[in-house]
Amino acid sequence: MQNGVSPLAFATLPALLLHATSRYSLANALNYPDGGRWIPLSHAELRSTVEHLCLGLREEGVKPGDRIGLIAPSSPLWVAVDMAIQCAGAVTVPLFKRISVESFTHEVKDSGMRWLFVGNPNEMPMAFEHARDKTTLVTFWYSGRHELFDRMMDRGREKSLREPGLFESLCRQVVPSDLATIIYTSGSMGPPKGVELTQDNIISQVCATTRVFPPAGGKDICLSVLPPEHIFERMSLCFYIASGIPVYFVDDPKRVADYMREIRPTIMTVVPRILEKVAAGMQRAAQETPGAKGVVARAAVARARKKPPEAAPGLRDRLFDRLVYARMRAALGGSFRHIISGASRLFPEVAVFLINVGVPIYEGYGLTEASPVIAANSPGRRKVGTVGQAFPEVEIRIAADGEILARGPNVMRGYHDNPAATADAVDAEGWLHTGDLGSLDSAGYLTVTGRKKELFKKSTGEYVPPGPIEDALARIPFVDSAMTVADNRAYVVALLFPDPQKLAAFKKSVGLATLSDAEFLKSDFLRLFTQDQINALNAHLHHTERVERFVILDHPAGIETGELTPTLKIRRFAVEQKYADTIEEMYRSIGGWK
């Protein structure tokens, strides 16, 4: 395999670590920002940190198969702790930093974790408030004294000196079928379920990624912007480490643009929301550019929004590239080879615009239960509007009812202590029932069309797919996200969550910038404007799908407030519970809904 890692080079995460730290010797393998400088962790330091902590864990009584929680900011230390847990033969249970108390306590209890590593403890009060009586807390970070962590490191260092071959022996004892991690689903449709992924599940994806996105022979640099507790980023980090690609971690989402210009990354994994903001920022800058340059910039934007991305560039496109698009790419560092988008749907118009600007966007599809990738677009094999072709070693089939099924070495072992849910998700032939609806074209490109379980059945017996309606509502100028309600109801109603940044720009564009956000959200102007937008949408919908009522809420959907999962999906059941009175009032205003 050219410029890649042989599928036979390693079969477990501990073997991946040994492979990488013996093959590469970068001084900046993993990097964390601190006060305007980067704190590097070399391959040698990564190896020694993992070794000492692994042996320290064993000295403290950790046994193979023990569940160990990990909640910390994205950083080299997150990776080191995770790898140490793996090398000790234990099971990592990553927890999202922004999570509801109910989900946190459920995951601690359900997983049966004995230990919980808490990074930068000042930012993690939930761990101390809700886990201390159930687990042993181990705090760690770059600064301060962390007694138990420091003791583990000291004991592991001493053990390494006494038995220098013990660490590698422990690594070799981990086999592909061993459980590597329990990752809790985001709980968009109910309480989180613990997805059990084996060593082989994750390693199969690392090797497949190397085939689809081969490294550039020592020239790649990664900017890590997603939380590593998300399997998409965690698997990607394993790929970067295995490939010798230096990783720079983002500590503040507001600094992403600054870090892009500073680091000039070549590869990055993102969620669609990041790309939407990038595209909106580029277009907003063009609108605000004065004079002749502004005229050219706006013409270039208009061209990028409508040109078929597969069409060869003409003279006008090359001129726009030199005068406008090159500056736009420079604002992102100017060196990207791959930006891989996953976790939720990317609007085709966003992808078309960015690809035409010269930003190499590749959309993929997967879920935690698939470790996570099922399909992906890739260099030379990209079809906008689809999520690409099957990932290596993954089979895709469309069931008779339109559900996407997947099978391969990446499919989970099952849900933790939940055999009934496992049987529902993975059938006797090994097919994972994704719960998503889709289609495959003649070239094998997969299109995701909606959620099977989110197909509302109205009280009239008619079915309504909420996804397309909510996507359209989210395009209203001030809206961040939308959720429709229709299950067992006679009508469709909608909750609209505002985006503060969009709201400010929209107020300015309509000459109402002097109003506060609260005043504007309650204004007759905004209500009438939104009704006009929804009327226009309804004109293109079947009469059974039309939005009959809407409410504009006074805040964006949030993770801490319970409306969003950590992967930024709407938690339908939670939102319906939280806004039950508001929803019922909408139905009462229609004049009967039973």
Characterization of this structure:
This protein starts with 12 loop residues before the first helix and ends with a helix. It has 594 residues and is α/β, with parallel strands linked by helices. Helix 1 runs parallel beside helix 9. Among the domains are: 255 residues, 3-Layer(aba) Sandwich (Rossmann fold); 135 residues, ANL, C-terminal domain (GMP Synthetase, Chain A, domain 3, 2-Layer Sandwich), CATH 3.30.300.30. The strands form seven sheets. The chain has a five-stranded mixed sheet.
Short description:
The protein has 594 residues and is of the alpha/beta class. The protein is built from 21 helices and 25 strands. The chain is globular, with a radius of gyration of 25 Å.
Name the poorly predicted regions.
none
Indicate the mean pLDDT: 91
CATH architecture identity of the domain at 13-267: 3-Layer(aba) Sandwich
Described by the principal axes of the CA atoms, the overall outline is globular
Q: Beta-strand level of the residues, as a percent range?
A: 15-25%
Strand arrangement in the largest pleated sheet? 11-12-13-14-15
Note the gap between the termini.
62 Å
H/I helix tally: 21
Write down the Rg.
25 Å
Largest sheet: 5 strands, mixed
The third-level CATH topology of the domain at 13-267 is Rossmann fold
Question: What's the CATH first level of the domain at 13-267?
Answer: Alpha Beta
Strands, count: 25
Helical percentage: 40-55%
CATH homologous superfamily classification of the domain at 13-267: ANL, N-terminal domain
Structural class: alpha/beta
